[in-house]
Amino acid sequence: MRLIAVLLLSLVLLAAKVEAGEVVVAPPGPTSVCPVCGMFVAKYPEWVAAVVFKDGHTHYFDGAKDLFKFMRDIAGYAPGHGSGEIAIVAVTDYYGVKTLDARGAFFVVGSDVLGPMGHELVPLASKADADEFMADHKGKRILTFDQIGAELLKNLDKGGVK
Question: Which end of the chain is more exposed for a tag (fewer CB within 10 A), N or C?
């Protein structure tokens, strides 16, 4: 019985510390353009997202929403590259303004915070940060990388999520 209690406590402590790891991605240059919307990305450093391919080729985005659109149609936006060639998928943490591994980040949708392209997926490093952001900014849902689908992206473009 005591072993079960210790294991459960360990799981709770580990779960409380789950957060996206920081990754190193060169910042976008002044002429870096989002392949999805055509905006100059360097103007919005607090929203920058990136996909770095194994060959070093990097695409920058003016927010996580356009990053996810890109991920759904890599062949259309980056001919000659495929999902198997991706080395890093990165987003910028809203609170820490640091570059995170998008696959481990938490994304809040439906908040009162708008990005460069309007309603946005707001990336956060930890579940605790996402919970805090939800409370402070009237967010609707917290999602993980694998939970973000085409319908959600369309709804964000149409003015948000319900």
Answer: N
Q: Is the dihedral of CA 112, 115, 118, 123 positive or negative?
A: negative
pLDDT score recorded for residue 14? 36
Q: Rounded to an integer, what distance in angstroms lies between the CA atom of residue 46 and that of residue 112? A: 16
How confident is the model over 121-141, as pLDDT tens digits?
999 999 999 999 999 999 999
Beta strands in the chain (DSSP E): 49-53, 58-61, 86-92, 99-101, 106-109, 114-115, 118-119, 122-124, 141-144
Is 6 a residue whose pLDDT tops 50?
no
Residue 72, number of CB atoms within 10 A of its CB: 13
Q: Check if the beta carbon of residue 25 is closer than 8 Å to that of residue 88.
A: yes
Strand pairing report for 114-115 and 58-61: unpaired
**What is the three-class DSSP state of 149?**
coil
Q: Select from 71, 23, 65 the least CA-distant residue to 44.
A: 65
pLDDT above 90 covers a percentage of the chain that reads 83
Q: pLDDT at position 161, please?
A: 79
Q: What are phi and psi of 49, to 5 degrees?
A: -125, 160
Chain position carrying tokens 């980040």? 105
Cα gap 38→62, rounded to integer Å:
9
